Amino acid sequence: MQQNExxxxxxxxxxxxxxxxxxxxxxxxxxxxxxxxxxIEILVQSAGNLVTKDDLMRRVWPGLSVxxxxxxxxxxxxxxxxxxxxxxxxxxxxxxxxxxxxWEIRQASNRPSVNxxxxxxxxxxxxxxxxxxxxxxxxxxxxxxxRDLLSAYRVVTLTGPxxxxxxxxxxxxxxxxxxxxxxxxxxxELVSLSDPDLVPPTIASVFNFQLRGDVFSAExxxxxxxxxxxxxxxxNCEHVIDxxxxxxxxxxxxxxxxxxxxxxxxxxxxxxxxxYRVPALAxxxxxVEETNDLLDHSAIxxxxxxxxxxxxxxxxxxxKLPVIAAICRRLDGIPLAIELAAxxxxxxGVQQVAERLDDLFSFLxxxxxxxxxxxxxxxxxxxxxxxxxxxxEQDLLCQLAVFPAGFTLEAAAAVVGDTDSSIALGISSLVSxxxxxxxxxxxxRRWRLLETVRVYSLEKLTQSGKHDQVMRRLAEFSLTQFxxxxxxxxxxxxxxxxxxxxxxxxxxxxxxxxAFSADGDAALGVRLAATTSDFWVAASLVxxxxxxxxxxxEQIGDATxxxxxxxxxCSLGFALIYAEGMSSHxxxxxxxxxxxxxxxxxxxxxxxxxxxxxxxxxRSMALSDALAFAREYEEVARFxxxxxxxxxxxxxxxxxxxxxxxxxxxxxxRWAIDNYPTDRRNQDMVRVGGDLRTSAMGHNTVNxxxxxxxxxxxxxxxxxxxxxxxxxxxxxLCVALAWASCFVALSLDELEMGNDxxxxxxxxxxxxxxxxxxxxxxxVRGSLATRRGEADIGFPLLRSGxxxxxxxxxxxxxxxxxxxxxxxxxxxxxxxxxxxxIDDTLRFAVGxxxxxxxxxxxxxxxxxxxxxxxxxxxxxEDLFRQSMRQARAQKAVYWELSAATSLAKCLQDQQKDTxxxxxxxxxxxxxxxxxxxxRVRQAKTILDQVS
Length: 947
Fold this sequence. Notes:
With 947 residues, the protein is α/β, with parallel strands linked by helices. 49% of the residues are buried.
């Protein structure tokens, strides 16, 4: 080979022809600018070695002064031309570029160039497949799969809804096949045909066949093709589907070497047809948040690529990616819709596009001017499909649009008001025309409309005047569908089958929204909201339970004083407790629910309302009221089943815990845990607003620690969390996490445990808008920071968390964390404020009968005085001794040990070792477990020093 002879470089389907100055992919020229080709020529001749930017600028723009950005623009154009192999062009940051690959070199004359229309003398095969206008994104696997199908079948039909990319995909497959096919590859556009009889002459015209009679027939065209090896791409068959199908069938029968690749929204339905349903581009699930994970999805890649092609300075910052992901999800990953949205993003910005997608059809316009008219706006694309339907199918499609979550055959029949068999035929036809998609397994067949199709069809339904009529039928069907949640005998089965109902949640929302709208039926909405109130709780959607119950009670109308009002008030009361906390309004709602339950003789709702009022009273520290509600319920429950008796023991044991009756509370709570029928657990979590076992185990850690069973308390708190996880109920898990992090970990100085569970508590409560639990988690953060010596960080966290607790009247841990706040104040030098805080906390605890923590409050006050400049030894000793006496009276040996340890340390500092030993030793000897706990070890250290 002579040195100056024109060369062709080849690797992996790519060719760089220096003579023709062409970049070719699989034999087809890829359009690229002159200077960009010069860069490619320089890079390929460097054999993979680095070419600096300065060298490129000197050789490509000799004698000119160009900026780095100019080189980057041309490098981006080359990468765009390389498409899926863009990584072959590697950037060495700040230095230059390399072109990777094992490039083989041959003489240019050894290979004919391919003309897209006519070929050349050395290559007699023809193709008219258009050159790709841009790189194909997210379809590499589909291209390879279709190549395999075309080697196994003679008719392959690409089907799917408008805008899914059937034509683009078919064209790319044809381009890839042509260099190795060994025959003609011809692209035949049927989109402009208004008369089905024009299909045969259109195909004949591509072959330049001359008519010898009056009419081109399918048979005449097929016989003219004869045995010639040909791949025909029949594009856009749906509007002439019968004629296209006849033509295809005739070609398969009479032309043994002809292969067909068709694109159509409706199947050809001929013998030997292989159907490939073109999928949407990949969109990330809602839970995907990492930048790299988002960028792995082809829908996002297309959005970014198209936006950059229209706006070169577009940067997809990390904060934009979740918004882009939401846009792509809303558009179902449909390439055309994404391209239209990208065009808008290039001019208006990503956030503005996301905010305007509710008006899809007026907003998503402005496609390429060279595109088909029906691909220039989203509405035009759907108009094309809709107008091809017969009236009955148009009507069916519009009525199915009221199902945002998809539908079963039963649901469709109920809403449309027709027989199952008739609806099934209609759905089948719409599926074959790519307007309805299967969205379920063989065992649970379910269908849905793509969001763009659904919004379009819903608009048509409204224009027809039938919208309210169809929505009423949806609401009535939902009422029947969710009825088991309001029927006591079917309640458990409904909760056990929760996944079935979860699938319907968006349909239910749609029905409720219509019912409570100006054009809806509020009475029907009240019945539906009451019927589904337990579903929202079971599905962990407490915020929606509150919203719909509140909405229904605002429009209660003639349902006042009925079972519906009772149910709604009970549901709203529990939801307010968990979502907002304790308020007088919440208590009034629950009192009214209990009154209705008594008048209606409904024991189920008497139990529910009583539990709600008990929970309200316990959390707001109205402990006498809580115990009174519990005793009242206990009187009724003793004559009922084991579940009722276990519930009564739990209700009584919890306020006894706060009242420092530790032995009795421990006995009742353990009995409740041991005897509660666990098969009722899922049902009762919905009925009484919480999980008896988790709550009882959490509260009992107070009794266990107080009585010195420290190891057992640690084990029980962890078991409660693991059990709570199995319930899949955020409120239940928050309860377990709160007790473990707020009380057990901090009381036993298990700081790592407190950090792990406290952070999980904050995250979970924030995610589900559970304000009281988030407040508790913030207080854990503040306490841990203070104990690490970072009181300047801990103080504001504690103050914020306590303010939210007080605002929500969630006071279970309120005195506990006020003591932590006092310690933080002392640590930052505000001793007076710390002592004032501890005195206020003591008054609150005594006044609210929060007795179990009083010994510890007294001890902490003594410790704070020790750290101040004006603490009198006699007063400090007296506080420690008061703490010991109160703890001893409560039989709370752990709090007694805590106070005895503080007193012994104080006496030790005064060289009163004997007295210190006599104070501490008798209490320490009562511990048989928990010897590794921080305070117990501290006591042992002091005893060793003074003995």
